[in-house]
Amino acid sequence: MTEFSFINAFSGGVMIGFAVILMFLGNGRITGISGIVGGLVKQEKGQVSWRVIFVLSLIIGGAIYPFLWGRELPVQLDSPWFVYVIAGLLVGFGTRTGSGCTSGHGICGLARFSTRSLVATVTFIVTAALTHTLVNVITG
Amino acid sequence: MESTDKGLPFSNLLVIITSGILFGLGLSVSEMVNPARVLGFLNILGPWDPTLIFVMAGALTVAVPGFQYARLMHKPFLAVSFSIPGKKDLDKKLILGAVIFGIGWGLAGICPGPSLVALNSLDMKVVWFVLAMLAGIVAHDKFLPS
Known about the structure:
By secondary structure, chain A is mainly alpha-helical. Chain A has one domain. Chain A has 6 helices and no strands.
């Protein structure tokens, strides 16, 4: 893995920031990915097409990255496949139960100064760090 | 933004597409699309990768003034009203959900946004994750409908 780049991290973050305020100031919507995907699964009337278009645009963003930045999309997956199945189930179930994920609570919620989002964000970051550390200890 | 049978107005559509692409590019540029980076941040005892902190800082530098400015607006530029989560109280579901999500996030280093962008890698592990995530959402709607 390449070294940490402050410029890439911060400027990528700024782009995400612009993405969420564009959606909020323009369309009045919170850009929470778990919420957007959740509404897709639920198939709320009149609320499906914009979610599909957003998800496709999100994926296209990653698809054009290598052409714009001249670099391969960095995706490194070191665990066996079943870990991703278990993790996916928990992430899907948990984000819907807790009404949000890293984007909805961690960015939009914090930017709105929402107490619920602050509590959720601290909770999932601490839980994730403990989980990862525990797995590291167990598997060596 | 009101979806009607006539479909989305072009201006709303443009916002959705621009926002989605910008978000996908941002996750790629910041390398949050890379689970190894995220796990590096969660690795509090070992060599620590601060990337996620700077991504959050970059995002909030823009998002905080944006969302606070919205308080001065009566309505969004291209919609009838703001859709804001109504819940204010800290209930058990919020904490329980955040803990379950945290365990999943800590296991794989993937959260919903990056999982979709990472589909571009065509790695079957990402496909497994996304399918399982959808199953998790369906399970929630079945067992814990709100």
